[in-house]
Amino acid sequence: MYVLGLNGSHKDNGNTAFLLNEILKECEKGGARVKLESVHNAVMSAKTPFCVSCSSPCSRACYKGTALEFLFDEVSKADVVIFGSPVYFGSMSAQLKAFFDKTRNARANKAWLGKYAAAVTSGGSKYGGQERTAEHIHACAMVSGMTVIGNGSELGMGHFGVAAHSPANEDEYAIAQCRSMAKNILSLKI
Ligand SMILES: Cc1cc2nc3c(=O)[nH]c(=O)nc-3n(C[C@H](O)[C@H](O)[C@H](O)COP(=O)(O)O)c2cc1C
Fold this sequence. Notes:
Blueprint: E1 2-7, H1 15-29, E2 33-38, H2 39-45, H3 67-77, E3 80-86, H4 94-101, H5 104-108, E4 116-123, H6 130-143, E5 147-148, E6 162-165, H7 172-186
Parallel strand pairs: 1-2, 1-3, 3-4, 4-5, 4-6
């Protein structure tokens, strides 16, 4: 099983990265191959950071040969993709949304169809929109035909993914939810 974590924060060592690493660490202990990648760096490597619908269908012209193309290839190889984002104005970061907007080619080729997707969020407020952010991530994953999974497992019934109140490394509940999500991922029949 290959589990890929995608960090939608510009911070490589921030709260979102911490949560993704907690899950990936557990998945690795359970025998999965894991990797963490930065969505921010990939999106910024494209000729335009946002989709400007330069062609239809998408010709991939804006990201050919860039870190973003590499990242899309990585997603194509993954069995499970964990999308992580800080909560920005009640939703995912602009970087992560830009990443999804640039997946028209993958969608047209059904490249992500049937892969598992999960959401991880971190907000500065206790109820700052973490669950809404997870829903928005789920929606984008479903538009690409992915199968959304949550964080319920034998360790405990979760909800919509991991929702942390930063600093995430002090949020014991969210850390427990990371472990539960990892357990859920490891239980998938892949
Ligand atoms: C532009 C911006 C918008 C934000 N909006 C929210 C928000 O709506 N709700 C919230 O709880 N926190 C909000 N925050 C705080 C971040 O979500 C929080 O600090 C998060 O844990 C940062 O994660 P990171 O360290 O992975 O970047 C916002 C921060 C920024 C910079």
